[in-house]
Amino acid sequence: MSVALPAASAGAGWPERLYDDGALTPPPRPVDPRASIVFENVSHRYDDGRGGGTEAVADFSATLEPGSFVCLLGPSGCGKSTLLNILAGFEKPTGGQVLVGGRPVLRPGPDRGMVFQEPNLLPWRRVIDNIALGPDLAGRPKKETRRAAKRLMEMTGLSGFENHAPYELSGGMKQRVALARAWISEPPILVMDEPFGALDAQTRISMQELLVDVWLKTGSTILFVTHDVDEALFLADRVIVVTPRPGRVARDVVSPLPRPRVYENLVVDPRFARLKQEIWLTMRRSDYDI
Q1: In 3-state terms, what secondary structure has residue 4?
Q2: Domain extents in the chain
Q3: Nearest to residue 219, comparing CAs of 240, 237, 234, 239?
Q4: Contact present, 221 and 36 (Cβ < 8 Å)
Q5: Which fold has domain 36-111+189-290?
Q6: Which are the contacts of 279, defined by CB distance < 8 A and separation ≥ 6?
Q7: What pTM does this model have?
Q8: For 199, which of 33, 164, 204, 222 could close a Cys bridge (C-beta 3.0–4.6 Å)?
Q9: Can the peptide bond before residue 260 be classed as cis, meaning omega within 30 degrees of 0?
């Protein structure tokens, strides 16, 4: 699969951008067929043990193609994180199923990397050792693992911080470590639960740009949860708007916005403004009126 600079970007105020090999378009990306995701009529209810409970998700269905970048967008408490936890294998749905590469998800697995809202770094491990945590636990050769960790540190702008402790890092740097840690095992799928929500605006944009750059090189399928419309439109090829609890698909939007995206130009692009308005109109309707 190759990602070309769409013709619609020419003359539209989108600056040309050189990639690593000097080209003006992103290089061809490896896409793993195992990275397809299918939510089939997924429902989930949290039982309170007294005959009641909370219906978090109801009849949620969506298909994600390998190598795609999809955002789940909706208000807090609408079931977005529940859907991610089911995909990651941390929870089992009370109805329906999730398929990864055509197989039902029954438990966590190395084919699905996870990045949480908090970086959750181990304070007694150096930066490079936090990145290498997964392969270390799996018994991978240390030399090979450290080589992979250093490559990811270069990709995520962490070179020079190999021996730092987590407490010596800023919030944005800690999330870079968490991102590198999730990618070191080269998972076909990356699942992200509002990882940039606690960052300041400038750092957040830098992290979004970094995420897209690494995604273009790795070809992972990314499912990213957010409640921020601007973030969803900047990052994703496709935005799935989720209703208030119980979470259902209110709208499924394929983005017309070209890549590469530059935030300063994106926010004044008429297509961005129109799409943002349409999504907000969907979200402002009573119960999303689906």
Answers
A1: coil
A2: 36-111+189-290, 121-186
A3: 237
A4: yes
A5: Rossmann fold (3.40.50)
A6: 73, 229, 232, 233, 239, 241, 251, 253
A7: 0.82
A8: 204
A9: yes
